[in-house]
Structures are given as structure tokens and as C-alpha cells.
Amino acid sequence: MRRSYFAHRRSDNIGAVPLWECGHTDTLTIRPSSPEPSSRAMSWLNRLFGGGSAPKSGRLDYVAEARALERQGDFDAALTSYRLALRETPENTDILQAMAIAFTRTHRPEEAMRCYRQALSLDPRLAGAHYGLAFLLLKRQETSAAAQHLRAFLQDPPSGGDAAGHVAHAEATLRALETPPEA
What we know:
Blueprint: H1 19-22, H2 39-49, H3 62-71, H4 75-88, H5 93-105, H6 109-122, H7 127-139, H8 143-155, H9 163-178
Helix pairs in contact: 3-4, 4-5, 5-6, 5-7, 6-7, 7-8, 8-9
């Protein structure tokens, strides 16, 4: 019997394995554990080997990666990517606000409020940070601070998209906070 050095390659095999390493004289089949590797594993592999969709500058686009991870529902991994992006641009208020939203979705309001406050320290006119912080403060029963942030949000509200709904919600919440309870 003729001994084959490599396993026969089939369309569903990942690759050929030297048979002498396995101690067999017949075909060895290695199948993938799943049809497609996870995007997180691919991202890690891309970073390791320098491939993937890195921008032309040679740097990875951590924000795009974080947003993709958020769409998949992996907020913890998204936060890791946001942290890496923030390391490259520490005063980027968009990243800080995105991190605050991800922290809110992972039930970590203290970290979310810290991100919103940091963003507001860099740009006190950020409507989104005022809005998000106001509602986190309301959950903590800090109504006067929440009302202050809602007023700041309404001084320069965003426009377009679904902004009208947020403005209406902020106005209604502020009215409710400023109206004394009936006895």
C-alpha cells in the first residue's frame, strides 16, 4: 500500500495535514467549527497581521469597528474599540458621547455620566450630552440638575432626523419637572 504524505484535500476541508503527524495512513478531514469566523476574531486577526479595512494612513478605524460591534449588540467590545479611538484623539466629543450611550446600554450609568461630563467640559454646547445626562440624572432623582441640562439642551436643540421627537420629549419632561405637584 502506498503511503500518502498529505491528507487528500476536499472542498469542505480547511487544509491538508501530514499523515505521519497523525499516525494514520488514510485521509484525515479537518472541518471548520462554524461556516464563518466571528467578526471579532477576524478583527483581531486583521489587527495582528495588518490586514483588513485599515485607513490609508495605516491606522485602524476604531470608531467604525465600534459602531459595527454595537450593531451586533456587543457593547462591551464596542467600548474597547471606543477607548482605543479615544486614546488616539482624547478630545473627540463624538467618541465620548458614543461611549456614554454604550455605557448606558450596558447599565453602567456612572461611567456614562462621566463620559457626558467630560464631553461637556470640552464643549459646553453639546446638545446630545446635555440630553443624555439629563435623563440619567432623572433616574437618580436629581431633578434640579436634570432640569438644568434639559434647559441647556433646549437652548440650542438639534434639527433634522428624529430631533423633533427628542425636543418634544425634553420640553414635556421639563414642564413636568417645573410644574409643582398637585396636593
